[in-house]
Amino acid sequence: MIRTLLVGLALIGIGACSTSKEITVDNALSKKEKKEGWVLLFDGATTNGWHTYGKTEVGAAWKVANGTLYLDASNKAGWQTSGGGDIVTNETFENFHFKVEWKIAPKGNSGIIFNIKDDRAKYEHVWHTGMEMQVLDNDGHNDGKIKKHRSGDLYDIIESSVETVKPVGEWNLAEIIQNNGQLELKLNGTTVVKTTLWDDNWRNLLANSKFRRMADFGTYRSGNIALQDHGDNVWYKNIKIRKL
Fold this sequence. Notes:
The chain has about 240 residues and is an alpha+beta fold. Helices cover about 15% and strands about 30% of the residues. It is globular, with a radius of gyration of 20 Å.
C-alpha cells in the first residue's frame, strides 16, 4: 500500500514537472513568445517568406535540411555562390527585435544585414544600404585580423565591446534590437554593440568607415533583413522577430 502511494506521488510529480516547463523545439514559438508577439521568419521546412535580393525566388544554393536554412557554397561564383546570393525577407521592418541562431564553417564569412532598400536596379548589393552584424570564423578568416570585422561587430562601424562568440562550428545566438533610433546588438545573451542611429555621431561613424562613399548607406530607417552569401557554408535556424 505504501509503495503504491509513493509511486503514485512520484508520477504526479513527474506530470507536474512536464507541464510547468515547455519543451524547447527548433523553429517553433513558445506560448510566452506567441503572447509577446514573436513570429517565425523560418518554418524549418521551406524558404517561404524569403527571396534572393533582386529576384522573386530563393536560389538553389540556399537549402533546407535538418531544421536549418543553410548555404551550400560548394559551387563558387567569384566571392559568392552560383545559385546563391544574399536572401532577404519579403517583409520590411522598422522597430523590431530580431533573433537568429547561426554557425559558420571553418574559415567562413557571412552576415546579418538589416534596413535594406530592396531595389537592385538602384543598389547592386544589400550592403549598399543595409548595416551588417558580422558572422565570422574569427580565428580562421582573414577578416578576423581586422578591427570592426569580427563576429558580433557592426561591420566596419563599431567593434564589439566584448567577444562572446563560440568556437567555429558551434551555434551562436544573435539578436538585433532597433527601436526609435536606438540600436543594440547581442551575441549569446550579451550586449556587444549599442549606439544611436542617424544623429551627428552616427554620421561621423559612417564618414570614417568603408561605406563613406555610399550616399544612402545606413540612412534608411526601415527595410528588409538579409542573410549573406559570402561564398562560405553557413547555417541558420530559429529565425524570429517581434515588432516593437
